[in-house]
Write a structure and sequence with these properties.
By secondary structure, the protein is α/β, with parallel strands linked by helices. Helix content is about 45%, strand content about 15%.
Length: about 375
């Protein structure tokens, strides 16, 4: 089997993390060859393997318009030149035709119109509307479709409106986030006068950073004898200026707020291990790597009660409404007032995180692709 992984529309974030880890752990057989096509940045991030051939045409390193034109005009000829048998498109929306294609549903924003409209009248809103139709077309034409969660499958299949061969294959968790030697009971006791919070997410409307800041401000006002530090980490997005202005206007003397741009996995892991409470406030997600990372890192987690979060985290966190800062304040109070609860949710989050493995995810992904390949070759 000659498999092409079409990563021409993957650039950063969770899509890149997924691609790197899946390729790292793919159980490739001697009679299989894997081709990866992506821009140079992505190819350089992916580990080299003996049965993996990386292809990075120069046009993919140029502007979005040039990249898209190259995909339309030249990608199919590259597929024919390399005698590809089947295509895996983890980012969806491939332009390849005439071959069985396995694709993935990763982004729920195109299918959540209320959250998409929070970007206002902007290019991002128009992009999400376009992605809605592009993704649906890609899914309907696919030979096989991978979902990350049952939640996403139930939502998106209603839009697709036809039967497809599907599989639910969750993400894994990178080893750098595992809480290997952490004293769970000791680190679960939030009795320090200084309490550190961390929230890692892109600064976009549906990530609800303003709710987080307001919730921490309310908490700090109610506990003047404590000091609070909130670290916000993530790439700039549509809400960055609003969040920055709210941080700059913070006048609560016992609350310090810091904003950081993108970091390496090891740097983010260090923030997790040095923080007392991890916050996840997104109101539109599929299977967020950030939540999985905090679970594995042994954090006390306060999480939005939206989407599939309770399916992923289970009893490993305390939940709040991402639209209501008072709800966040109450959730944080419940943790700070009950040390047994803090230790319990931390322990359950770590146990739940052991279910998510990149090795398992990679193996299940390749097995699903193999099954689709055999099905489209009459079982031979």
């Amino acid at each position: 089997m000659r498999l092409l992984i079409d990563a021409t529309n993957i650039r950063q974030g969770g899509g890149l993390t997924h691609l790197k880890e899946i390729i790292r752990y793919l159980p490739i057989s001697d009679n299989e060859k894997i081709f990866l096509i992506a821009d140079k940045f992505v190819c350089d991030k992916v580990v080299d393997r003996s049965l993996l051939i990386k292809i990075s045409p120069r046009s993919l390193n140029r502007s979005p318009i040039i990249r898209h034109l190259w995909r339309l005009l030249f990608l199919n000829s590259l597929v024919r030149k390399n005698n590809i048998d089947i295509v895996f498109s983890p980012g969806g929306g491939t332009t390849i035709q005439g071959l069985p294609i396995v694709t993935m549903c990763r982004n729920m924003l195109p299918f959540d119109h209320n959250e998409a409209l929070r970007f206002g009248f902007s290019l991002m809103t128009l992009k999400l509307i376009a992605l809605h139709f592009i993704q649906l077309k890609s899914f309907r034409q696919a030979s096989g479709l991978i979902f990350l969660t049952d939640y996403a499958k139930n939502i998106v299949m209603n839009f697709i409106g036809k039967n497809l061969i599907t599989e639910v294959i969750p993400h894994g968790i990178s080893d750098s986030f595992h809480a290997k030697n952490r004293d769970i009971e000791k680190s679960g006791k939030l009795i320090n006068e200084e309490i550190r919070f961390v929230y890692v997410s892109k600064f976009d409307p549906y990530k609800n950073h303003l709710t987080v800041i307001s919730g921490l401000q309310s908490l700090a006002k109610s506990r003047p004898s404590h000091s609070f530090i909130l670290n916000l980490i993530g790439p700039k997005g549509h809400s960055y200026k609003k969040v920055l202005n709210k941080v700059r206007s913070n006048n609560i003397s016992n609350l310090s707020i810091y904003m950081y741009e993108e970091m390496s996995h090891s740097e983010i892991a260090d923030f997790y291990f040095k923080s007392d409470i991890g916050i996840f406030a997104s109101s539109c997600e599929n299977m967020p790597n950030i939540l999985l990372e905090m679970m594995s890192a042994g954090m006390v987690i306060v999480c939005a009660n939206s989407c599939s979060m309770s399916d992923i985290l289970g009893e490993g966190g305390v939940y709040f409404s991402p639209y209501d800062y008072k709800s966040l304040h109450n959730a944080l109070e419940s943790i700070l007032n009950d040390q047994t609860l803090a230790i319990t949710v931390k322990t359950k989050a770590i146990e739940k995180s052991k279910y998510y493995s990149w090795q398992t995810s990679a193996s299940n992904t390749l097995n699903f692709i193999r099954a689709i390949y055999k099905l489209n070759n009459n079982g031979n």
